[in-house]
Write a structure and sequence with these properties.
The complex is a heterodimer of chains A (313) and B (439). Chain A has 313 residues and is of the alpha/beta class. Chain A is built from ten helices and nine strands. Helices cover 29% and strands 21% of the residues of chain B. In chain B, the strands form five sheets. In chain B, strands 1, 2, 3, 4, 5, 16, 19 and 20 form an eight-stranded mixed sheet that branches. A four-stranded parallel sheet of chain B has the order 6-7-8-9, sandwiched between helices. Chain B has one domain: TIM Barrel (Alpha-Beta Barrel). Classes of the chains: A alpha/beta (313), B alpha/beta (439).
């Protein structure tokens, strides 16, 4: 079986996505047991290479691998040979000497997964590369939607609000949401909308006037760098919060708010929503574990089998 | 005065028989024999015979063309001879059918003094396989501040002046350069780029960059600088050559300037004529260059402009990089690709075979047009030219671009691993056999 990478949502068909979500669902009972571990990937080796800061993604990949009984190895840029100037290619060659089955990579530069994949026999899973893609975040978002809003996401209306220009999550989500038949609208000031994004099949709006038509409001983090002098993406966080920040007052009943974290209270999200049980933000984190278990499992055993349940457990 | 230099080699005596000779300047497109004696085209016609010391080359089924001239090559010498030197770069040129190339000045140190230029000329006399000439920098160290001694550099033989790789940063500097260059009788070649719109740019700004999440380089980044430079050239009545035009918007500015009588010429690269930003999906660093691959509408406008003559010539922007520099994530890779050895194969295969450009137009844009801009006589197959400058191409060949098949010291080609047609099998440059796959 040739190795299978997951670098972009474009690497997956709709059937692949549904299989991954079904597989993730089949892992949920494991996570509710007292002994939260299955022997499925015993003897397999999974390396987590995080060359950029991460809390949720790195911890959930690590735990997901352990729940499947794989041997794991976690490396960060600081304290590794990266600090001595080792290139990604040489790190790939070095780590490949351990014959890992999977290398999970988080990296600040788009294209890093391709460089890694070209220099290792391990399957590469993209845990975020530059502003390019974050496919496992998209899959866990889809899983949270399916668990909370019903299995059929076709026709669901999603507003993605925030810094689209700099967001790898937005790019993966647009592809995944469209793949499952959702209607996607992007909302941001024009400075944070990449030119030509409409060709991905989305609508673009510069204000929240139509917010009531959304079933799901997906918020993106606004980074402080965007208001640095000379950047001129935003005049101030205050103006952003006034025009695009989401608080209870802006929502109608039944609308669900999502956010990939970490959140900026008082900027893109008001505390009255962040602290409300109705939002899906904590569920997204929860989903990360089951979904990443499913991704690791499918990457190793293959995407061909439609019935995950029996053989997993 | 001399503009190119080359190592010594014995003059060629060759009878090239039965090829399709295409020399648009001489009005020739016919199956003819070409006799080269003592390095000069002695006779062209049917059924020629040769003396017993003359090698006969059977060119049946092949094209016999005037040799090509490249106005835009990076030979990385001095400073990065690990990537390319005068010998390897000019051998790559010969393998691509080129009979003269001009090297850009962004070396280390830059070609910004007569001493550096004289050193290069001496190197060329020892090592160059085909004649090579040199641009000198517009500003010292390419720093965009103080003009170089263009008078002395021109007298030493600089073909023109360029800070290629970097734009001239201010209108005032562009103006001073365009004024002062007149002391040399040469021209300024511009790398058009508004740096304030370039910052962090990785690829053409458009739907593909939006999808890939790479910072875009808008077409405005080039066209604004082209337009302002040509306005200044008009005001100063000075000669400008626009390097590697990549956008339809820049063409509009060139067209306006030409219509107004401005002394402007323009070049386009083989990659901008045949590839677009849609090719970047897999984030291959060998598709990263500046200016970047543009939109399909830009590509079509460039082909039309090359056909009409609005763009005067093809230039390769041959930019060798060491393998370790390119074997990194796309976002960290330097700009630039090699191009001397693939130029004709790519353009013949993509444009001529596809019907977008006729062969004689392509030959003119690769040969006579750039020679004229450089102040060289046009390579010609008609008897009487000073020295034979020609190449023989097998249009039916199939070859794979690989580190082994390229003569350049670097192999950062956009077509690496791909099969191409039309292979140059013989090049005679300045009357000397410079490349020979027919022996």
């Amino acid at each position: 079986m040739p190795k299978r990478d997951l670098i972009s949502m474009a690497d997956l068909t709709r059937a692949d996505v549904e299989l991954l979500l079904d597989t993730a669902e089949s892992f949920l009972p494991v996570l509710e047991r007292d002994i939260k571990k299955v022997p499925t990937l015993r003897g397999r080796t999974i390396i987590n290479l995080f060359w950029e800061a991460s809390t949720r993604t790195s911890s959930s990949f690590d735990l997901a691998a352990k729940r499947l009984s794989a041997d794991t190895l976690a490396l960060k840029a600081s304290g590794s040979a990266v600090e001595k100037g080792e290139t990604l290619k040489d790190t790939a060659i070095t780590l490949s000497a351990y014959s890992p089955d999977i290398i999970v990579l988080r990296h600040p530069s788009a294209g890093a997964c391709q460089t890694l994949s070209a220099n290792t026999d391990a399957s590469v899973i993209n845990a975020g590369d530059g502003k390019h893609q974050h496919p496992t975040q998209c899959l866990l978002d889809l899983f949270s939607m399916r668990q909370n809003l019903g299995r059929d996401l076709d026709g669901l209306r999603v507003f993605i609000v925030g810094d689209i220009l700099h967001s790898r999550v937005a790019r993966s989500d647009i592809m995944g949401f469209k793949m499952l038949g959702m209607d996607v609208t992007l909302v941001a000031p024009p400075t944070l909308i990449p030119r030509g994004i409409e060709e991905m099949g989305v609508s673009v709006k510069y204000d929240l006037a139509d917010l009531a038509s959304a079933d799901v409001i997906y918020l993106l983090r606004i980074q402080r760098e965007r208001i640095k002098a000379g950047a001129n993406y935003l005049p101030s966080l205050r103006e952003y919060a006034r025009m695009y920040g989401i608080s209870q007052a802006r929502l109608r009943p039944g609308q669900r708010v999502m956010h990939p974290g970490p959140i900026n209270r008082g900027v893109e999200i008001a505390s009255d929503i962040a602290d409300d049980d109705e939002n899906l933000i904590a569920h997204q984190v929860f989903s990360g574990l089951a979904v990443r278990m499913a991704i690791l499992y499918r990457t190793i055993v293959g995407y061909s089998d439609g019935s995950a349940g029996g053989e997993v457990l | 005065m001399e503009r190119t230099w080359c190592r010594h080699a014995p003059a060629a005596d060759l009878l090239i028989t039965g090829g399709r000779v295409v020399d648009p300047g001489a009005g020739i497109d016919a199956q003819l024999d070409v006799l080269v004696a003592k390095g000069k085209v002695a006779e062209i016609g049917e059924g020629l015979s040769a003396g017993k010391n003359t090698r006969v080359v059977d060119a049946g089924g092949m094209l016999v063309l005037p040799g090509f001239v490249d106005l835009h090559t990076h030979l990385r010498t001095p400073g990065r001879e690990d990537e390319e030197d005068v010998g390897s770069g000019t051998l790559a040129a010969a393998a691509g059918g080129y009979v003269a190339v001009f090297a850009m000045a962004n070396t280390d140190p830059a070609v910004d003094t007569a001493a550096v230029l004289r050193g290069l000329i001496e190197t060329a006399r020892r090592e160059a396989v085909v004649p090579v000439g040199f641009f000198a920098a517009v500003t010292r160290g390419l720093a965009g501040e103080q003009l170089t001694e263009m008078g002395e550099l021109g007298a030493c033989g600089a073909v023109g002046f360029s800070d290629d790789g970097r734009p001239l940063p201010t209108a005032a500097l562009i103006r001073r350069a365009l004024q002062y260059v007149k002391v040399s009788g040469r021209f300024i070649a511009i790398h058009a780029q508004d740096d304030s719109l370039m910052k962090g740019g990785q690829m053409h700004e458009g739907p593909a960059s939006a999808r890939l999440g790479l910072t875009g380089i808008p077409s405005l980044c080039e066209s604004l600088d082209v337009a302002r430079t040509l306005d200044i050239a008009a005001y100063e009545d000075s000669a400008v050559h626009v390097c590697h035009v990549s956008t339809a918007a820049s063409l509009a500015a060139v067209e306006r300037a030409k219509a107004a009588g401005v002394r402007v010429t323009a070049e386009v690269t083989p990659h901008h004529l045949t590839l677009t930003d849609e090719a970047l999906e897999a984030l291959d660093p060998n598709l990263k260059m500046n200016p970047p691959l543009r939109a399909e509408s830009d590509r079509q406008a460039l082909v039309a402009a090359l056909r009409s003559g609005l763009i005067d010539c093809v230039a390769t922007d041959h930019a060798p990089h060491a393998v370790e520099e390119k074997d990194v994530p796309f976002e960290e890779a330097p700009f630039g690709i090699v191009g001397l050895e693939t130029a004709f194969a790519v353009l013949y295969g993509e444009l001529v075979a596809g019907g977008a450009l006729d062969l004689s137009t392509l030959v003119t844009r690769l040969s006579a047009a750039p020679a004229r801009i450089a102040g060289l006589p046009a390579p010609s197959l008609s008897p009487g030219a000073a020295a034979a400058d020609l190449c023989v191409v097998d249009p039916e060949a199939e070859w794979t671009v690989s580190p082994r098949s390229l003569q350049s010291r670097s192999f950062n080609s956009a077509w690496l691993g791909r099969k191409l047609g039309a292979r140059v099998l013989l090049t005679v440059a300045a009357g000397r056999v410079a490349w020979d796959q027919l022996a």
